[in-house]
Amino acid sequence: MKNKLLFSLASVGILGALVAAYLSGVTQPPLPPAFDPATNPYPNGIYAEGMVESEQPSGENINIYPEVSGTVKQIAVAEGQQVKQGNVLLRIDDSIQRATAQQLQSQAQAAFTLLAELKAQPRKETLDVAEAQVAAAQAALKTAQDELDKQEAAYDVNPKSISEDALDSARNAVATARANLDVARKQRDLTKAGAWIYDINNQEQTYNALSKSYLSASALLAKYTIRAPADGVVLAVNPTVGSYVSGQGAYDSYTQGMDPVLVLGSTQEHLNVRCYVDEILVPRLPNPAKMKAQMSVRGSNVKLPLEFVRMQPVISPKIELSDQRQERVDVRVLPIIFRVVKPKALNLYPGLLADIYIGE
Questions:
Q1: Could you say which DSSP state residue 283 is in?
Q2: Could you give the 3-state DSSP secondary structure of residue 5?
Q3: Residues 144-203: pLDDT tens digits?
Q4: CB 317 within 8 A of CB 331
Q5: Which fold has domain 122-194?
Q6: The CATH number of 36-55+267-360 is which of 2.170.150.20, 3.30.70.640, 2.40.30.170, 3.30.470.20?
């Protein structure tokens, strides 16, 4: 009985080994590729790496940097939103600058009021006071003169009736009254002449300086509100409300670098493709009038024809996708910009890498 059990177990083991050997020898058919690799459609086509970007008459996407520093108070747009030229995109806290502008405005208004006061002189009430002072001086002179005349007449009748000292005092009183009348008349003439032209000119310069300071402060205040420089689509909003931005942009905690505060592109109906041709292949480029190109969208079998737009006629260092601030680049390339019509059935966005073949 024991031998039969051992024989059965051995048979099962042999059968299992045969099945395993068969299964391990069966070759599984390969899975079909998710997409075909890029192929050269031209006999002597030149390969280049390209990047999709929004369509611009010149240059690349509009990278917006603030001209002032501060804390973000409001973000008025969202990524993907279409904006018109002049629309508010972002506001930076302007409380300090606004108070400064208001202070300069008040100072300019005070200077203008003082300038108007100088130009309006003489004031009628002030001139009336000056005329009254002249009249009072004339009356005082007449009183002193009458007193002197009486004393001189008495002296002529009887020299002993008036002392020399009293007569001298009366004469001095007349001289003093005459001098006071002269001063009152000069003061009236000065009041009637109005403000001195040099005082008016000085106040005008003060008012102009304060006005220009206010205009400068107002212009700087307007910089705290970032507006769209052109019609387009918001491609990226990097800061958040409460974060700090400066003329260098917004800090990116992932790359530990500074990014534009906002990136603005054109409408997505048409896109540009910027490709970089290695300097070794530049002599093989066809004439721009006969140049054709095809773009292979990575991750799909879609191949799109490209239309030549322009060429940047300068060989420059190749821009890598890593930290371009510190990386040493030895490859030099020629940038060429093509135009592509965005297909409706394909997701195509700025920033996408693509394979480009250029032919004739």
A1: G
A2: helix
A3: 898 888 888 888 888 777 788 888 888 898 899 999 989 999 999 888 888 899 999 999
A4: yes
A5: Helix Hairpins (1.10.287)
A6: 2.40.30.170
